[in-house]
Specification:
By secondary structure, the chain is mostly helical. 74% of the residues lie in helices and 0% in strands. Helix 7 (98-109) packs across helix 9.
């Protein structure tokens, strides 16, 4: 059952880009609503379980929670805008360069030794990006869309690093704070961008935004952390890469966004490289004279 919960959450994340294509609202407004509705849902879930956020744990980790929440908001702004500027597949795959980037910067930022076995994964992922973007043959997609996707990945990297520094805090407490902070981060941007007023959304857009906030954020976060808490780390890493796979499939089959053979090869390289890099067994240190 826990495995099913985790898979369901990951699949929900993977369909977000597809749903956004049917929303007649600025992407930043959708992102802000997602943060508000998602955090409200988790608070209601905790109340239903007769639990309260651990304020002491939140205070201890406040710095990293705030930074993570701000970059989560920025990640959504860039990613949702990328969905509108390029295909869902390209935007999602660019965003999922984050684990590969973390490998490269971990020695400097996290003081972790670079595992040289992962360098081929890094090279494969970058080759995949060249194939997916079309730069290799001069048929690159929207430069703005590619730039926004890479900006989203950069923010994703910061989120990953911030969460590495969190200590002794429940997953849902972390989520509710970061979601609320993400909404507050996006609010000024929404106010600046909408000085001329936000066009009245149609009923379909309102319904989809509610679904994205409640189901794809609040419920998905609860399912995600509930399932992740009992699954082996390697299983979590493997199943987590269903998200970009689902995004690519939705892009191709529901939105009819063609990628071509090179695009499919690039997608396989990116997803495969990230998957292999995260599932390699930990390298054991050997003592001198012992093999």
């Amino acid at each position: 059952m826990e495995r099913v919960k985790y898979i369901l959450a990951v699949v929900l994340y993977g369909t977000i880009g597809m749903f956004l294509r049917y929303v007649d609202l600025p992407s930043e407004v959708v992102a802000m609503c997602r943060g508000i509705l998602g955090s409200a849902f988790i608070l209601c879930y905790l109340a239903w379980k007769k639990e309260k956020p651990d304020r002491a744990a939140i205070r201890r980790n406040l710095k990293w929670l705030l930074i993570g929440g701000v970059t989560l908001g920025l990640n959504w702004i860039f990613l949702f805008a990328a969905y509108m500027q390029t295909t869902v597949a390209v935007a999602s795959l660019l965003n999922y360069m984050a684990p590969i980037i973390v490998i490269l910067i971990a020695p400097a930022v996290l003081r972790e030794r670079l595992d040289k076995r992962k360098l081929p994964c890094v090279a494969a992922a970058f080759a995949g990006i060249l194939l997916v973007s079309g730069v290799w043959n001069g048929s690159a997609g929207s430069p703005a869309g590619i730039a926004l996707g890479l900006a989203a990945a950069a923010c994703f990297v910061v989120i990953v690093i911030c969460n590495r520094f969190l200590r002794d805090i429940r997953a849902l407490d972390r989520s509710v704070v970061q979601l609320a902070v993400s909404a507050l981060t996006i609010l000024p941007y929404v106010l600046i961008r909408s000085r001329g007023g936000i066009p009245g959304p149609d009923a379909r857009s309102v319904l989809i935004v509610l679904v994205l906030g409640i189901v794809h954020t609040g419920l998905a976060y609860c399912l995600y952390f509930s399932g992740m808490g009992t699954l082996p780390v390697q299983t979590v890493a493997i199943l987590g890469y269903l998200e970009p796979v689902v995004s690519v499939l939705c892009s191709a089959f529901f939105l009819k966004e063609a990628m071509g053979p090179a695009g499919w090869i690039g997608a396989a390289l990116i997803i495969g490289a990230a998957l292999v890099s995260e599932t390699l067994p930990e390298k054991k240190e050997t003592k001198p004279g012992l093999e």
